[in-house]
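Morning. Coffee machine broken again, so started the prediction first thing and wrote up yesterday's gels while waiting. Chain of 249 residues, entered below exactly as on the submission form.
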Amino acid sequence: MDPRQKNKQAQKKQQAKAAKRHEQALVAQQVAAASPEQLRAKLSKRNEDYLFKLHKALVENGKSEQQAQQQVDDLLSEVIDNQIKGIPARQLYGTVATEVDTLLHKKETSNKQVEFWKLSVDGALLWGAMFLVVFGIMGFFTKHPDRSNQMGILTTIVICALWGILFAWFNQQMMETKKKRKSAWQIILYSVLALVVIWMVSLLTYILPPAINPILPPIVNIILAVVVYGIRWLFRYYYHITINTLSGR
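Came back before lunch.
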């Protein structure tokens, strides 16, 4: 085949893909702005039947008509979005019984209501306890601890505080709905930038004199680790924090 014809065919394919993406974006905007009544009108017969059975099953399991309708309406945008991609509700959520069980036993997302500063403090205390216990153990096997194998206490505090903030932000992103959550590339980009900032700040603390940023004895690190973890336990208990800081669940 003539190379020019190949190029024309490739251009046509690219144009067709771009037009399809543009069309999907327009439809997604329309879906986001549509009312539940308008969304229901867009349902395929298969999805309409699925949601009808889901509503009926929710009522049979103790939900009022209004509660069941609200829970079904909350799914409409996601159902339509996936319907456009050729994914039916049955494939998206599983059987009606499975989705009913999910909706009925969904945990109240109290973790989503935890303020950012509380998640940051919780994370900072956890990282602090872990860093201190690691440095304590390493200190027992290091004859001459210095800045090449240990961090000063001020460096530890600063880094753990920044790690706490980073993980709090990351966990909040993971707990957001798909519509509100930042895209994967944005999360990766912001995380990398945050790690660079943490690295630069840690370098600044390394140049501080030992009198300001001392390396603590191993036993002191271990004792501080226990104290810090105890403070974290009290902090979580007082503010009713149940989220796992590392996994975000």
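Residues 107-112 have pLDDT under 50 and may be disordered. Going to sketch it on the whiteboard this afternoon.
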